[in-house]
């Protein structure tokens, strides 16, 4: 049963959010339209926890841009990052170091070796800066942060259904999975997903808080399914073409707005 909204101020609450196409714009990568909602959450004391395929370096950078210091989940649930002193300090400086807790035993090098068996698959680690720039629009430091993967590989090559059907069982036999984000396919360990990392991090909050928190989550694409399934309150925002990705989750709240505008509407409903 989805709790009725808005959530009472005294209720311990966490909001997990996807980044690309949810907190930040699918095309411009801008978080400008989410900023007011991010502030509202901070004022209410509700931790905003990033849960994305993005790297540690990318998420730390985005936190600094938004002026927040919160735990987050990197590379599709591969690891949890917690600011040092987060549960004991009243205030944390923006350059706080993070403790990184891996939830998988595989790393990017192992996945790269598995993918090397398939011809003509461009991935972040074997693409040139020019190719990566053409595919993502990223350049300079932002491109370096996106490349800095520890646990997963993102494919630049668009997989035709036959290729996907060929690759999937071979990767699965190695304990890896292939999933589709808003833009690209990602290969990662089958040991984890966004949902498992959400439950793990919510447990950590529950151990430090006086009560287990209510979990809200906001996403836009198929790779958010496990995160939204793990949540008590699940919000799905629209894709840039004003449609929702097909998702069957009981109580799922479909927000009639795109990306960051949809995210902001979800925060208003929640608070
Ligand atoms: Mg997304």
Q: Strands, helices and their partners?
A:
Elements: E1 13-17, H1 35-44, E2 48-51, H2 56-66, E3 72-74, E4 79-83, E5 98-102, H3 108-115, H4 129-136, H5 140-147, E6 153-155, H6 161-172, E7 176-180, E8 185-189, H7 194-208, E9 214-219, H8 225-229, E10 233-238, E11 253-258, H9 259-270
Parallel strand pairs: 1-2, 1-9, 2-3, 9-10, 10-11
Antiparallel strand pairs: 3-4, 4-5, 6-8, 7-8
Helix pairs in contact: 1-9
The protein binds magnesium ion (MG).
Structural write-up:
The protein is of the alpha/beta class and 271 residues long. It has 2 domains: 13-103 and 192-270, Rossmann fold, CATH 3.40.50; 108-189, Putative mannosyl-3-phosphoglycerate phosphatase, domain 2 (Threonyl-tRNA Synthetase, Chain A, domain 2), CATH 3.30.980.20. Helix content is 33%, strand content 20%. The chain contains 9 helices and 11 strands. It has helices at residues 35-44, 56-66, 108-115, 129-136, 140-147, 161-172, 194-208, 225-229, 259-270, and strands at 13-17, 48-51, 72-74, 79-83, 98-102, 153-155, 176-180, 185-189, 214-219, 233-238, 253-258. The strands form 2 sheets. Strands 5-4-3-2-1-9-10-11 form an 8-stranded mixed β-sheet, with helices on both faces. It is globular and about 55 Å long. The two termini are 18 Å apart. The mean pLDDT is 93. Bound molecules: magnesium ion. The site of magnesium ion (MG) has 8 residues, from loops.
